[in-house]
């Protein structure tokens, strides 16, 4: 018995040793591979200035031209590999997603809370994702169309007869729609408080992280606590009422799920963060592209007028419904083409969790990996005459992994249906009831952090007569 177990033990040790050697052999194999081409610039600061001192697209484009679709560089203190081929994007985001974990700058993590969906992998991520998708899938958001419809009508009404900053006003619209999707109609009670706290929070998170009374950062941390208190109040009211809600908060509160209040708070703040500025930037670009392309605007307006006409003919209720939004193919193509040309999320961040081989190169463990969506969307191989705004190119669907405004794989945007829905509804009322003229400079772009028309696209809106 004794001897048997000693032999078993010896065999076990031998096998462990063998396995270790095999693994070591292979990892040395990978280690021998060259790094991708490219330059790392100065120590520590790397090429951060080259990237941030100009339009970032100039940096990416000149690198791709020099080194090809995969190259290394060094920004913000991190060595990184930038990739801009559809194959590489598929590998990093979808097929080998387990080897590339999402990473964010520390400031974002502080603002959103470290339990928010963006930073997670594995079981906790899968659980959160299921809950978010449940609230944002078409069957859930189809009931929200008439409420979004009223938000859109009120928003546009408030712009009449004055010069507005399109981006700022769109942020109010997308914030209100986000609250509707998170809290349902209960939200009106808390809207102003939530808005005030979120505003302080966002101002603080880009500031120096010095937690002394009076600093923006200190105020932001206080606002975050207050947000958590407001949420706690909403949660306790809901728990007493014992009703089922189909909104995001209801999904997070589902009995079996057992999320803590902290986890719920981090993910509610995260959802507002993911939903508001992204959708508002896209809407701003759409107004610009429609304003610059009269024939496209006319086609969209005709499509939207036809929806109103058909509803009147069938004696339907005036408010838009889900079925109406499925009869907008021209407008949908305009949204797709705007997402492509504007590519507001120029890239995303991942980090290699181990040494990875890709196309004969080594991507070392710990390096950042950035799929460059904008370069993929602006490559003439994927989209001929890429700088031209031409919605008709979406009459045929793009090839896999050449068009990823919402990402791909396990972290792809769960809010994409909601984003498209609220954009369709706003364009419907805008084109059927209003004209607008653009007041600012024509070609300027600002980055803050998403690319936007200069000064947020000042416009003047008036009712059609
Ligand atoms: C046009 C507007 C939008 C664009 C272009 C957009 C784009 C994206 C992209 C590219 C990602 C993936 C990032 C990555 O893989 O690193 C993402 C993730 C996400 N988006 Fe959106 N998004 C938009 C609107 C929304 C809306 C309205 C919501 C609703 C709450 C939302 C919620 C989220 C969430 C929660 C994630 C994280 C998913 C995860 O990590 O599993 N987004 N979005
Ligand atoms: C809420 O949903 C649960 C599970 O789907 C169901 O068992 C319960 O009866 C519902 N309660 C109400 C008040 O609708
Ligand atoms: C996402 O990746 C899968 C697998 O590679 C692919 O089939 C799909 O078309 C991709 N989606 C997009 C939007 O490119």
From TrEMBL:
Family statement: Belongs to the cytochrome P450 family.
Gene3D superfamilies to which the protein is assigned, alphabetical: Cytochrome P450
InterPro entries attached to this UniProt entry: Cyt_P450, Cyt_P450_CS, Cyt_P450_E_grp-I, Cyt_P450_sf
Major enzyme class: oxidoreductase
Protein name: (+)-abscisic acid 8'-hydroxylase
Annotated EC: 1.14.14.137
Annotated metabolic or biological route of this protein: Plant hormone degradation; abscisic acid degradation
CDD domains to which the protein is assigned, alphabetical: CYP90-like
UniProt KW Transit peptide keyword: no
Record keywords, A-Z: Heme, Iron, Membrane, Metal-binding, Monooxygenase, Oxidoreductase, Transmembrane, Transmembrane helix
The protein's required cofactors: heme
Residues binding heme, per UniProt: 413
UniProt GO MF annotations: (+)-abscisic acid 8'-hydroxylase activity; heme binding; iron ion binding
Catalytic activity: 2-cis-(+)-abscisate + reduced [NADPH--hemoprotein reductase] + O2 = (+)-8'-hydroxyabscisate + oxidized [NADPH--hemoprotein reductase] + H2O + H(+)
Membrane topology: Single-pass membrane protein
GO process annotations (BP): abscisic acid catabolic process; response to abscisic acid; response to water deprivation; sterol metabolic process
Assigned GO CC terms: membrane
Subcellular location: Membrane
Membrane-spanning residues: 6-26
